[in-house]
Amino acid sequence: MSAEKRKPVLVIGLGRFGSAVASSLERMGHEVLGVDHDAEIVRDHRDMLTQVVEGDSTEVETLEQLGCAQFESAVVAIGTNMEASVLSVLALVDLGVPNIWAKANNERHGRILQRTGAHHVVFPEQKMGERVARLVNERLLDFIAFGDDFGIARLKAPESIMGLPLVMSECRKKHDITVVGVKRRGEDFIHATPDTIILPDDELVVSGLVEKIEAFAAQS
Length: 220
Ligand code: ATP
Known about the structure:
The chain is α/β, with parallel strands linked by helices. It has helices spanning 16-27, 39-44, 60-65, 82-94, 107-116, 124-137, 166-169, 171-175, 210-218; strands at residues 9-12, 32-36, 51-54, 73-76, 99-103, 120-122, 140-146, 150-156, 177-183, 189-191, 203-209. The longest helix is centred in the middle third of the chain and has 14 residues, at 124-137.
């Protein structure tokens, strides 16, 4: 992993989302400074993070004393307490942190965070809700949407293309999707090539417009 990817990250708010972000960053090799105003939460994270401190992130002086101005990336993972979320983002903006990510609980919260100066606003509950809805309804095994209309999905290979090399099944022409990878039971994913023959029980990774992927999955 490059040094670029291991830059220290500040995570403010160690609730369920912040805790998951912080521990994932640690696993990926980043040093993480976690900040929360709840002493019990701080105690619970002592062994998980490089450093965790108790403090009120809405106070710019507190963040300054903690050295937060030195961080290039910060995640504000406070959702329910909207005032604390917005004031924490504002404090980081005032400190000149160049890459501020903030969690929003709804659209309005998201707009306020953007206006306040957050560089990236994420909607974890909403995104996960949409994702689960697709997985439940559309016979997809996994799914990520980019923007409104483009996505990548993992799905069981439809019978109509089984036993054929991909070049002959004409997925692009007939279904307007691209098969990018194939996973065979007990094997790693491989990149799909025109010669790849699709077998029963194969899983495919496909990309394309969401509606096209859903139509392709529906025929499996
Ligand atoms: P979750 O990720 O669990 O869904 P949430 O979106 O409900 O969290 P909150 O519970 O409001 O968000 O806050 C998340 C965490 O941020 C909590 O651990 C809380 O103690 C902490 N927090 C809230 N306000 C502040 C603040 N002013 N300073 C520091 N930490 C704070």
